[in-house]
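Exercise: predict the structure of this protein bound to guanosine-5'-triphosphate.
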Amino acid sequence: MQIGLLGKANVGKSTFFSAATETAVPIGNYPFTTIEPNVGVTYVRTKCACKHFTIVHQNPHCMNGIRLVPVKLIDVAGLVPGAHEGKGLGNKFLDDARQAEVLIHVVDIAGTTDIQGQPVPAGTHDPLEDVEFVESEFDLWFKQILDREWQKLLREITQKTATLTEGIARRFSGLGVKEFLVSEVLKESGLVTKKPAEWSDSDILSFVRILRKKTKPILIAANKADLCKDLSIVEKIKGHVVLCSAESELLLRKAVKANLIKYVPGDSSFEVQGNATPQQKQALELVRTVLGKIKTTGIQQALNHAVFETLKFITVYPVEDEAKLTNKDGVVLPDARLLPLGSTARDLAATIHADLAKGFLHAVDVKTKQRIGADHILKDGDVIKIVSTMSRG
Ligand SMILES: Nc1nc2c(ncn2[C@@H]2O[C@H](COP(=O)(O)OP(=O)(O)OP(=O)(O)O)[C@@H](O)[C@H]2O)c(=O)[nH]1
Ligand SMILES: [Mg+2]
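Solution:
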């Protein structure tokens, strides 16, 4: 599972990344601070299965029943209009983000940066322009892949060495595109009945737009919300928007590390401990006013939305001992796995080890104690024991 951060230059992508992964990376109020991608681990927040069994366990990723499940996060270089023609750092950012299953588009909602990412007074740039151009650059990157190969693809179709769906799926295989998806997009775009040789440039664009939405869905993180004078602007943005203040989250994470506050990422408040200096307390109170305005810093909400709503993943807990809820080393609820909705017991086995899936006999739904088959569809929060003729590894 990988989430990519995408956006114009200087909007706060690296600040988001640094806060979410608790890793120090260069952050600066000018465009193109980031050139090479930053890759790190962050967590999505969910309810731990220990709550169901009313047990207390020691797990660094479970805090009082709040379970943090690891996901990979990638922060890439920013982009400017014309990136697909090589402007700014060109398309490099998209090549770096190609592994991501979902993208969080970080927008400077306060309008403190112009279209090139240069600092300007708050409210003087329209963030809606950024939402539009960034998505359009992304679509044009998809289009270039097809444009480059279009004549060759037409020849393959004429010579009957490939069908349209096969040919397109092959060109996008690096992005995980399968033939059935190409067929779906052909139907949705209304191009299924049009001969490929007659497709116009705008036909290709409408096709790749739908394909892009399906393969790389985007959710919007309206960042720098702390500086935004009129948040009603987000209502004009199509699609899901999460209000964010990456800078506030970064400060809170640092304060937790320094033992100054009690705070779990995603909380709407925090508790200051006695050892904070008056200056630290003042900085934290400023963050409190931001939380008063936008409820949470939005960082955890954006990550959670990307995984659980946009991608519709579920969390499943594999165990080896269904009575003790442990793995073979006696660790209680050691592992939480993120799986796409519709995953089966055998799919879970395959994420643990290919052999476990190969020798699959049956599984046990530990919450209900019922025996389930390989094709049983798993639910969010399931605790599963797999019985297989082959052990892992
Ligand atoms: N007030 C405020 N400032 C922020 C926030 N997030 C980031 N910033 C500031 O915005 C500037 C740019 O932050 P970066 O994280 O470097 O932005 P970026 O999108 O990674 O920039 P490039 O790598 O250059 O594309 C820095 O001065 C940050 O401190 C926020 O939520 N609120
Ligand atoms: Mg950056």
